[in-house]
Amino acid sequence: MGITLVRLHEVQVESKKQVIVTLKEIAMRQCHRAATAILLGTMLSVLAGCGGSQHDPLEKYYLLSANVKIPYWQTAANGLMRAASQLQVKGEVVGPETYDPQAEQQELHRLIGLQPKPAGILVSPADPALMK
C-alpha cells in the first residue's frame, strides 16, 4: 500500500492497551480507505469499460459516504464526475458533511426511493450495521 506517517501527540494514556487500540483503529481506517479506493476504482473501470453508446444520458450514479467534505472524498468525487462525463451520464456524491452514520443511512433510503431509480449507488458505510 505504501508508507503512512503518523504524527503522535502527547496524550495521557491509562494503559498500554489503549495505545494498542488506538494504533489498531488507525490501521483499520487505512484498510477501509484502501478498500474504498479499490472499490471506487473498480466501479469506475466497469463504468468506463461499458462503452459510451450503451448508456442513457439520463442515467445517474451516486457515491454515498459520510464526511463528504474531507479531501479524501473530494478526490473520489472528482474521479466519479470525470468518469460520468466520459460516459455522458450523471454522477453525484451525496451524504452528510460530517461523520454521521445515521444521516448516511437516511440518505441511502432516500436514494433507494428515488424515481427514476439510480443507475448505481456506491456506498462507503460509516457503520456497516446500519446499512443492513
Give an account of the 3D structure.
With 132 residues, the protein is an alpha/beta fold. The protein has one domain: 3-Layer(aba) Sandwich (Rossmann fold). Helices cover 48% and strands 12% of the residues. It has three helices and three strands, in the order αβαβαβ. A three-stranded parallel β-sheet has the order 2-1-3, sandwiched between helices. β1, α2 and β2 form a beta-alpha-beta unit. α1 packs parallel to α2. The longest helix has 34 residues. It is globular.
How do you describe this structure in short?
The chain is of the alpha/beta class and 132 residues long.
Record keyword descriptors for this entry:
3-stranded parallel beta sheet, single chain, Rossmann fold, 132 residues, alpha/beta, 3 helices
The total strand number stands at: 3
Shape: globular
Q: In angstroms, what separates the terminal alpha carbons?
A: 29 Å
- Annotation field: number of helices: 3
Largest sheet: 3 strands, parallel
**Count of discrete structural domains:** 1
- What's the helical proportion of residues? 40-55%
Please tell me the overall pLDDT.
Answer: 79
Oligomer state of the chains in this structure = single chain
What fraction of the residues are assigned to beta strands by DSSP?
5-15%
CA radius of gyration: 18 Å
CATH topology: the name is: Rossmann fold
Order of helices and strands: HEHEHE
- Which runs of at least 5 residues are low in confidence (pLDDT < 50)? none
Q: For the record, what is the CATH homologous superfamily label? A: Response regulator
- Report the top-level CATH class: Alpha Beta
Order of neighbouring strands in the sheet with most strands:
2-1-3
